[in-house]
Amino acid sequence: MRSFFEFRKNKQIRNPRPAFLLPLKIKSSRLHPYGAICYSQLTSINDYCCMSYIAVIGAGSWGTTLACLIAEKGYDTSLWVYEKDLCAEMTATRINSVYLPGFSLPASVSITDDLGVALDKARYILTVVPTQFTRTIVQQALPSIQPDAVIVNASKGIEKKTLLTISAILREVTSNKVAVLSGPSFAQEVIRKLPTAITLACDDASISLLLQEILNTQYFRVYTHSDILGVELGGALKNVIAIASGIGDGLQLGHNARAALITRGLAEIKRLGLSMAADEHTFSGLSGLGDLLLTCTGPLSRNYTVGKKLGEGMKLKDILLQTKSVAEGVATAESAFELSLKYGVQMPIVQQVYSVLYEDKEPGLAVRDLMNRTLTTEFHA
Asked: pLDDT confidence of 326, banded at 50, 70, 90?
């Protein structure tokens, strides 16, 4: 019996993904002795139709992009749109003019504003809604979620007040298996099929392999990992550091300052992550350092843009009125600051971003206070 691993290693097969494999249910999470799923663990091909449906909940730029990517691989894909007027427009034009203008959705993407319709028969559900609305949306969707469906979080943030990551929210609200998709991935580049690498985290190895094969393409490379918490913390907290990076550029502080900010920002993220029992190695990977570098240096980043406008003198309320897209780092800054107090972790950059956003502190004064803190060693507990 050939294992899944051996199948993928066969270089004579042009497409190493067997067409019947991905949508099939695995009888158990038992793995082959060499870590690969055996064909004998899969149920019959009769399960194909009821297992291949994929729902994307949230039609922002990233949700729309993921729906296009999945549909182009041949999966039955539904895309749930919150705004009824946008849903009607997208159905008529096949273009998301608000969040992803200029790109047509494949005809195989079913667009709807009805959660029940979107989730009907869905075996895999990608949640791509703003963090602060995740709990409400999933609770509304709960009656339509299949008990054996896998929910994949593709958003980046920490819920205010509860201080929970999105996977923790999903586990509170549902009993479904949960995975996380995160890493350096601007939607505008992925939709143009520019090379991208990303992390898929799940604590079930068999589900990780299936999701990896579902999402991976020639331009979208997916790596698996088991540290869900670390992947989510890296994706959420980098948005706060990106706001600080934007502030620095808005104040024209130069490249030295940006390099220092990114490096010290990563140290803060890692300190909090370790205090919460995340894997240290995660923060050196795509969902940690990789995502941090991209978001702190790329003008396509909403969080960097918010910070840059703050540094140039605009007020937060005026900045937020200018865009329909959500800059997750604004809400996450409050949650991150509270987490630093809860776990007793020093996070001076996060603290200053919080002060600028929520205490109306002048950005220049925040920089001065960062630079004039008590001197210490670079590496400390």
From this structure: confident
From the list 73, 156, 238, 270, the catalytic residue is 238
Give how far Cα 273 sits from Cα of 17, 267, 277, 280, Å: 35, 10, 6, 8
Number of C-beta neighbours around residue 377 at 10 A? 5
Q: Three-state SS for 221?
A: strand
Q: How far apart are CA 195 and CA 380, in angstroms?
A: 37
Is 238 part of the annotated catalytic residue set?
A: yes
Helix axes 255-275, 348-358, angle to 10 degrees: 100
> β-strand 109-112 against 196-202: which pairing, if any?
unpaired
Quick check: 186 pLDDT over 80?
yes
Which tokens in the block code for residue 23?
Answer: 């949508």
pLDDT of residue 29 exceeding 50, the answer is: no
3-state secondary structure of 246: helix
**3-state SS track over 162-192:** CCCEHHHHHHHHCCCEEEEEECCCCHHHHCC
pLDDT tens digit sequence for 191-239: 999 999 999 999 999 999 999 999 999 999 999 999 999 999 999 999 9
Q: What is the pLDDT of residue 298?
A: 83
Note the pLDDT tens digit of each residue in 302-323.
999 999 999 999 999 999 998 8
Mapped onto helix, strand or coil, the DSSP state of residue 42 is strand
Rounded distance between C-alpha atoms, residue 32 and residue 357, angstroms: 51
HSE-CB for 320 with a 13 A CA cutoff: 10
Return the number of other C-beta atoms located less than 10 Å from residue 315's C-beta: 11
Contact by Cβ (8 Å): 130, 62 = no
Which residue reads 């925040």 in tokens? 366
pLDDT band at 68 (very low <50, low <70, confident <90, very high): very high
Specify the length of the chain in residues: 381
Q: What is the mean pLDDT of residues 261-270?
A: 98
In whole angstroms, give the CA distance from residue 295 to residue 376.
28
All domains in the chain, ordered by first residue: 52-226 (3.40.50.720), 240-371 (1.10.1040.10)
